[in-house]
Amino acid sequence: MAIKYALYDNQMTSDPDDHMAQVQHDQTLTLDNIIETMIGRGSTITKAEALSVLEEFFDAITEAIKNGQAINTELINISVSLKGVFTDSNDRYDSNRHHAKINVQAGTRLKKVLSELSFTKTEASKPVPTLLNFKDVASDSSNDTLTAGGVGQLNGSRLKIDPADNDQGVFFIASNGTETKSPTTIRNKPSELIFMVPAGLASGNYKLEVRAKLGGKGIRKGQLLDELVVN
The Bvu-2165-like IHF-HU-like DNA-binding domain covers which part of the protein (predicted)? Predict the structure, then answer.
């Protein structure tokens, strides 16, 4: 399947006619989506087994990084570097002046994919909030449970809202179309929102939607792919 791209004005050059390409992803997959694809191909492993193995894999990777080891796999290569200025050869690491950075590069298997990609041009779409993962703090679950009156954590991109604007915010849309807005935003960043889940939500399924003005333009809406359930 061809990858879609659209052209937008290039603000990095002085040429008013210059444009730059931006890939238009049809969908953003979570770990659960990847596992569903794995077991959907006829694999003999269960979803629980796949999750368990991947959790062990993630733990092994993070432990290696903490131990000062670099990672080299067919999929990705991971290493750590230090940023910041050291005053002379006798200077030492100071967390107030220096910071660590995780470097991730494509491995040989991902690099090979580049030669197999095909592209098709499409019309430029307006940017919208992208909701990647919702964590229900009370139940410590992701993209599943919704606890009325609890705290929710949402990660993604273009999520920042203006709490003073009644049209912007985090909305919970019930199966019957009823909309309830989160009453309080605790953390308000482009990549993360932490907010209160309305206490009055009735039992049932809900769509989670963020409404925000991007670049001073009109209200743009983005929804989480998974439905959330209030028990």
Answer: 3-123
pLDDT category, 19, cuts 50, 70, 90? confident
Would you mind telling me the total number of residues written for the chain in this entry?
231
Please calculate the CA angle 122-209-180 and round it to the nearest 5 degrees: 150
User: pTM (2 decimals)?
Assistant: 0.54
Question: Taking Cα atoms as reference points, which of 174, 160, 183 lies closest to residue 208?
Answer: 174
Q: Contact at 8 Å (CB) between 121 and 21?
A: no
Tell me which amino acid residue 35 is.
I
Q: Which domain holds residue 21?
A: 3-121
Regarding whether 201 and 105 lie in a shared domain, the answer is: no
What is the distance between the alpha carbons of residues 21 and 93, in angstroms, rounded to a whole number? 40
What pLDDT score does 196 carry? Answer: 97
Long-range interactions of 28-36: CB distance < 8 A, separation 24+: 28/130, 28/132, 28/225, 30/132, 30/133, 30/143, 30/225, 32/143
Q: β-strands 119-121, 3-9: how paired? A: parallel
64 and 147 both lie in a single domain: no
Residue spans of beta strands (DSSP E) within 10-138: 19-23, 71-72, 76-83, 99-106, 119-121, 130-136
The CA distance from 160 to 228, in Å, is 21
Q: What is the reported pLDDT for 181?
A: 97
CATH number at residue 33: 4.10.520.10
SS3 sequence, 17-48? CCEEEEECCCCCCCHHHHHHHHHHCCCCCCHH
